[in-house]
Amino acid sequence: MLEYLLSFLILTGAIFTFIGSLGLLRLRDFYMRLHGPTKATTLGVGSLLIASAVFFSNHDAGISLHEILITLFLFITAPVSAHLLAKAALHLNLHSFAKMPVKSIKEKERSSSDAIDVKH
Amino acid sequence: MTTMTRLLPHPILSLTLTGLWLLLVNSITPGQIVLGLLLGWMIPLLTLRFWPEVVTIRKPFTLLRYVGLLLWDIIVANFTVARLILGDLDRLKPIFIQLPLSLTSDLAISLLASSITLTPGTVSAKLSEDRRYLLVHALNEADPDTLIATIKQRYERPLQEIFE
C-alpha cells in the first residue's frame, strides 16, 4: 500500500518537474519562461520531498523532518530568484510579448538609479 | 521594556530560528533545545542591522488561514500553469500590470511579492522606487482590472490585517 503511495508521489513529482522544464523550452519570451520553473516545479519538488519524508519516516526510526525545511527554503528562495531574474530582464530591456502598463516605471527608473534599490 | 527590546530585539525571529535549528538537527533533546534557544537569541543580535523593523503579528489566526490559502493556491497554480504550458501557446495573452500597493512595511511587501510569484500565472517583476506600485507579469490574463482586484482582495488585505 505504502509502495503505491510513494510511487504515486514520485511520479507526480517527476511529471510536474518535467512540465516545468518543458515550459522553459516552449514558452516564447523570457518573462513567460519564468513562470515554468517558479510554479510547475514547486508541486513537483513538493511531491518528491513528501515521498522522501514518508519513506524515511517508515524506514528509519523517528520521523524525518528535514524535508519540511527543504520545502520551506524552496518556497522562500524560488520567488526571490524569479523576482531578481525578472528585474534583471527589465533592466536589460529584453524583448517581451506583454505590453508595459504605462511607460513610466521602466523609463523613469532607467534614467534614475537602476538595478538595486538600496533603501536602508 | 527598553532593556528587554535591546536584549531580545526580535522575539518572533528568535523563535523561528530556534524552530529551524530543531528541524535541522531533527531531534528535540534538552541540549539541542538550549543550543537552539542560544542561536535564536544570538543571531538576531549579531544581524541587528538587517532587521530595521520590528515584526508584529497582530492576528496569528489570520496568518494561519493565509498560509493555508496560499498552499492551496500554489497547488492550483501548478495545475493552471502546467495546462497553459502544454496547451496552445499562441493563444496565451501575457501582460504586465501595475499593482497599486496599500502595504507599507518591508516584510509585508516582500511577502505579497512572493505570494504573487507562487500563485496562478503571475510573477512579481519590480517594485517601483517609491514603493507604491508592484509590476506584475501575468502569463495569461485577459482582464487586468479583475486580476488587480483579486490580488488586492485575496492576498493584500489579509497581509495588511496581519502585519500593519
From TrEMBL, chain A:
The chain crosses the membrane at residues 6-25, 37-56, 68-90. It holds the Pfam family PhaG_MnhG_YufB. GO terms for molecular function: sodium:proton antiporter activity. Keywords: Membrane, Transmembrane, Transmembrane helix. The keyword Transcription regulation does not apply. The keyword Transmembrane applies. This is Multisubunit potassium/proton antiporter, PhaG subunit. It comes from Nitrosomonas ureae.
Automatic annotation (TrEMBL), chain B:
It is a multi-pass membrane protein. Pfam families: MNHE. GO terms for cellular component: plasma membrane. The keyword Disulfide bond does not apply. Coiled coil: none annotated. It is found in: Cell membrane. Keywords: Cell membrane, Membrane, Transmembrane, Transmembrane helix. InterPro entries: Cation_antiport_E (IPR002758). The keyword Transmembrane helix applies. GO terms for molecular function: monoatomic cation transmembrane transporter activity. The chain crosses the membrane at residues 7-25, 31-51, 63-87. Belongs to the CPA3 antiporters (TC 2.A.63) subunit E family. This is Multisubunit potassium/proton antiporter, PhaE subunit. It comes from Nitrosomonas ureae.
